[in-house]
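Worked problem 6 (solution included).
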Amino acid sequence: MSALFDFKSLIIVIVLFICCCSYIRDLRPSMVNSKTEGFTGLFRKAAVIGDRLSPYVALACVISAMTTLFLR
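Solution. The predicted structure is:
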């Protein structure tokens, strides 16, 4: 089944996308430009969410990892 149709998988994809954008922004800030709009602006917004809510995003990663390992 596709990750878009399964709610748990969709949440995992969103959390991993936020984590990846935050990590890329720390390594190469020029790749996640603050002046972009449209689809590429989504990367910047995800990076900002990851930076500001990093404890909650990390907790969501740990919870999703535990549910993947032990409940699936």
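Discussion: Helices lie at 7-27, 41-52, 54-70.
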